[in-house]
């Protein structure tokens, strides 16, 4: 019976796909693990306990039907498993690679709590969709009956691409505008290849282009056209630009040569992987080769930076974080991968100043300790007077997170209202901004950083846009 294939977690151990050795993978930007072979994927999927209340789905931002497609995989019904995983996510193979499963679905797996080790959900999801691509099961985008309405999307990241797919499937003409020369946003230029190889992203974008979605790349809203000009061209606008403004470190020497922003560094590295000429990399400003590198921050962006520096041939790589390991926001798996590759983590530490002559040479570090809990219950870091030390540094990478850009100024749209945090002010039921017909994806409403949230928000906001476009068409028909 099919049910006998499941609940194998007691007799079958948890097993992730084998990782390449740290020495080997530190020499390239390929993904560090291959996908499962079919018997291994089936066996790992069969460990699922098929709980009545699936906490994995509850804690998934997309609410994927995880137990169902695990069961289908275990039963060898892989095409059905793919179709079910694809029903709630436009990019399941990307989520399988970069979603922080250890603090979402796998971190809340019931058998993880029982001590048997979580089901390897992300690796199975990656296997399912990679197989679907290889077997030709990924169908072209099905375009709905033409509505005669046009939508402009600003931003070709995960939220923008997801909204574009749903809106095109509804029959709308869709134009996507992005300031970079390739679509994909952080999927293309922010996340390194060792976590997400770029052909995985490019094939998704080609599918959208083949479905009739128009991409306008190297296009800066506010420079090549104002927001108002785009509003006159389209029936509705979606702002899905993400949050790209780097948070600063307010310490002496912050503006010294060699102190660089994380995203500038990662974009340069990813461009090199595409074979582009990058002046700042060629002249050494954004190349870690032969340097003592210090990365400041404890999130996933910091993990991307330290592991990129290793692959560029840095002399040493250290990561400063003001809290301890248990309280860092980044994925613990990424920390473990970084440690295997030779990264040194300096916990409970923060930069006090950067010493430089022509370029940064040293970081003065203030030791930290955890004080009383704040309003969220998280213990706040505070200086530890007894701990101060210096670290050599030829390159310092600031990875402290991101804030929204000043979109009203950037887009030439002073009537576009923002909150006191700089995020777009919206009606949270309709996702419409202060400008009629202009909607916003959630990442620039609340500053979220998880890629999967961008995918979900793209789906959610496309539904709200579709309702508004339908009402607009009915109103115009009555007026005529």
TrEMBL record:
Record domain FAD/NAD(P)-binding: where: 151-453
Keyword Metal-binding carried by entry: yes
Annotated Basic and acidic residues bias: 15-24
Keywords: 4Fe-4S, Iron, Iron-sulfur, Metal-binding, Oxidoreductase
First and last residue of the signal peptide: none
InterPro entries per the UniProt record, alphabetical: DPD_II, FAD/NAD-bd_sf, FAD/NAD-binding_dom, GltD-like, Helical_ferredxn
Gene3D superfamilies xrefs: Alpha-helical ferredoxin, FAD/NAD(P)-binding domain
Keyword presence, 4Fe-4S: yes
UniProt region (Disordered), positions on chain: 1-24
Domain (Dihydroprymidine dehydrogenase): residue spans on this chain: 25-136
Protein's name in the database: NAD(P)-dependent oxidoreductase
């Amino acid at each position: 019976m099919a049910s006998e294939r499941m609940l194998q977690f007691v007799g079958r151990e948890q097993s992730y796909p084998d990782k390449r050795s740290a020495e080997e993978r530190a020499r390239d930007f390929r993904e560090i693990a291959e996908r499962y072979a079919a018997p291994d994927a089936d066996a790992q999927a069969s460990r699922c306990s098929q709980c009545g209340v699936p906490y994995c789905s509850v804690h998934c931002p997309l609410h994927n039907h995880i137990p169902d497609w695990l069961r289908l995989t275990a039963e060898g019904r892989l095409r059905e498993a793919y179709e079910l995983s694809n029903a709630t996510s436009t990019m399941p193979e990307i989520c399988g690679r970069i979603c922080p499963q250890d603090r979402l679905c796998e971190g809340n797996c019931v058998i993880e709590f029982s001590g048997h080790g979580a089901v390897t959900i992300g690796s199975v999801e990656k296997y399912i969709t990679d197989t679907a691509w290889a077997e030709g099961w990924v169908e072209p985008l099905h375009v709905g009956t033409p509505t005669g309405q046009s939508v402009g999307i600003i931003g070709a990241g995960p939220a923008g691409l997801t909204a574009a797919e749903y809106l095109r499937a509804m029959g709308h003409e869709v134009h996507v505008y992005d300031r970079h020369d390739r679509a994909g946003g952080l999927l293309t230029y922010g996340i390194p290849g060792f976590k997400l190889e770029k052909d995985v992203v490019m094939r998704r974008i080609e599918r959208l282009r083949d479905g009739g979605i128009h991409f306008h790349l190297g296009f800066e809203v506010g420079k090549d056209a104002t927001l108002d000009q785009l509003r006159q061209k389209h029936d509705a606008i979606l702002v899905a630009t993400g949050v790209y403004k780097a948070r600063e470190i307010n310490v002496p020497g912050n503006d010294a040569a060699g102190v660089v922003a994380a995203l500038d560094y990662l974009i340069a590295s990813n461009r090199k992987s595409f074979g582009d000429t990058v002046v700042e990399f060629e002249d050494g400003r954004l190349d870690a080769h032969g340097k003592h590198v210090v990365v400041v921050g404890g999130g996933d962006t910091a993990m991307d930076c330290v592991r990129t520096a290793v692959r560029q041939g840095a002399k040493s790589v250290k990561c400063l974080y003001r809290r301890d390991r248990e309280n860092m926001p980044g994925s613990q798996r990424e920390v473990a991968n970084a440690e295997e590759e030779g990264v040194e983590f300096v916990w409970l530490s923060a930069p006090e100043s950067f010493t430089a002559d022509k370029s940064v040479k040293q970081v003065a570090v203030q030791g930290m300790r955890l004080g009383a809990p704040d309003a969220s219950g998280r213990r706040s870091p505070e200086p530890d007077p007894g701990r101060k030390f210096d670290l050599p540094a030829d390159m310092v990478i600031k990875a402290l997170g991101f804030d929204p850009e000043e979109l009203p100024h950037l887009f030439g749209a002073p009537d576009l209202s923002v909150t006191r945090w700089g995020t777009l002010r919206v009606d949270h039921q309709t996702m419409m901004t202060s400008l009629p017909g202009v909607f916003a994806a959630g990442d620039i409403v609340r500053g979220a950083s998880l890629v999967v949230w961008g995918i979900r928000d793209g789906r959610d906001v496309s539904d709200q846009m579709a309702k508004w476009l339908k009402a607009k068409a009915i109103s115009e028909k009555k007026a005529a």
